[in-house]
Design goal:
elongated, 13 helices, six-stranded mixed barrel, 12 strands, 375 residues, alpha+beta
């Protein structure tokens, strides 16, 4: 039965290739859109997830980590006095403008701390040393910024907020959802660059709990002592940042629409091809029935044809997506495809093709076995 299924499928090779190509296109569309969606969402909170803080204190109703608002920096002392707090430090996240060699200006999201090592920022240095940020007018900018601000290297100079700054190095992997360049500067230096907004103020308090501390109770106590701030666990804060971009930019709907179109294309191509193939082989199916085969046997044959198209189409579509990765990376984007996504899309492809083959079942069920003797 398997040989018969393959022979019928390969009888018209051009049609078979079109079927596999249609499934491959659908798989490629689904995987690339899901991968881009996961990559963009990851960018929105990648820095939050690399900071080893257990609790984040924010100003009230801050929507995501990039859109920070200020509150008095002395609030950190209230947090440090709470039993169960191992460490608490102020973090400033703000936008600063850098003047490019061309004379244009480019905004950067800047993270400012007094001790970057304590909070694992930046977690990957391509060149230079983050320790130099304590030496004066130094800045570390992520290597991904080169697409926006041009080539730069440790030792180069730029005007930042009108002040001549020297690059202490380049980090890797620190990106933002909006692709705005990410930089790191000393906490006091950032306050000096924008004194009207940041003098005596911070935008976040990072809290590390002592070993064995009850995180839920600690969060409640911080909230009690800072009633005009919001207090999140690190995971809740990262999820809130992700949800903001998903709900306010339409990328979730865009990804859903692309996946729907991919499934639609796959269903239409496979259903049309298998139905046409069924019509072309009515006599062969009639022969199967005439020699004792049942409708179930023919359904199984059609299902196997659909499975072959699904496996080949999924393999080809997956290879196309893997081939796209370098080009996507060159644009500063990522295709993130965990194994569970591959498994889900693979299973979905098989289900899509088998269900598409079901359109031929009704035609097959009505075949008269005597058809073979009337020709």
């Amino acid at each position: 039965m398997v040989d018969l299924a393959l022979r019928m499928l390969l009888h018209d090779r051009m049609r078979f290739l079109i079927t596999v190509a249609g499934v491959a296109f659908a798989v490629q569309l689904i995987l690339s859109q899901v991968g881009l969606f996961l990559g963009l969402v990851r960018n929105s909170s990648v820095i939050v997830r690399h900071i080893p803080a257990d609790i984040w204190v924010t100003s009230r109703n801050t929507p995501n980590v990039d859109f920070a608002q200020t509150f008095p920096e002395t609030y950190v002392n209230r947090v440090r006095s709470i039993p169960g707090v191992a460490r608490a430090d102020n973090l400033i996240v703000t936008f600063v403008n850098a003047t490019l060699p061309t004379g244009a200006t480019e905004g950067t999201v800047t993270y400012a701390l007094e001790d970057f090592r304590a909070w694992n920022l930046p977690w990957d240095m391509e060149s230079g040393s983050v320790e130099d940020l304590r030496r004066g007018n130094y800045i570390v900018t992520d290597a991904s910024a080169a697409r926006r601000i041009g080539a730069f290297a440790a030792g180069d100079y730029r005007q930042v907020q009108g002040v001549r700054m020297r690059y202490a190095g380049r980090s890797r992997g620190a990106v933002s959802f909006t692709t705005t360049p990410v930089s790191f500067m000393d906490y006091r230096l950032v306050q000096q660059l924008n004194p009207d907004l940041l003098s005596g103020s911070t935008t976040y308090i990072l809290v590390k709990a002592a070993p064995g501390a009850d995180l839920k109770a600690l969060r409640a106590e911080i909230g009690r002592r800072l009633p005009h701030n919001d207090v999140y666990t690190a995971r809740d804060w990262a999820d809130r940042s992700d949800a903001y971009w998903i709900n306010n930019t339409g990328i979730g709907m865009n990804a859903f629409t692309a996946v729907f179109l991919g499934v639609l294309v796959g269903v239409v191509v496979v259903a049309q091809t298998l139905y046409t193939s069924t019509m072309d082989h009515l006599k062969e199916f009639g022969t199967v029935k005439a020699i004792g085969g049942s409708n179930a046997d023919i359904y199984l044959l059609l299902g196997r044809q659909a499975a072959v198209a699904a496996v080949l189409g999924f393999t080809l579509g997956g290879l196309m997506v893997l081939g796209l990765r370098p080009a996507v990376a060159a644009l500063g984007l990522q295709l993130i495809l965990p194994m569970r996504v591959w498994a889900l899309v693979g299973g979905g492809t098989l289900l899509m093709c088998v269900l598409s083959a079901g359109l031929s079942f009704r035609k097959v069920a009505g075949i008269d076995p005597g058809l073979v003797f009337r020709s």
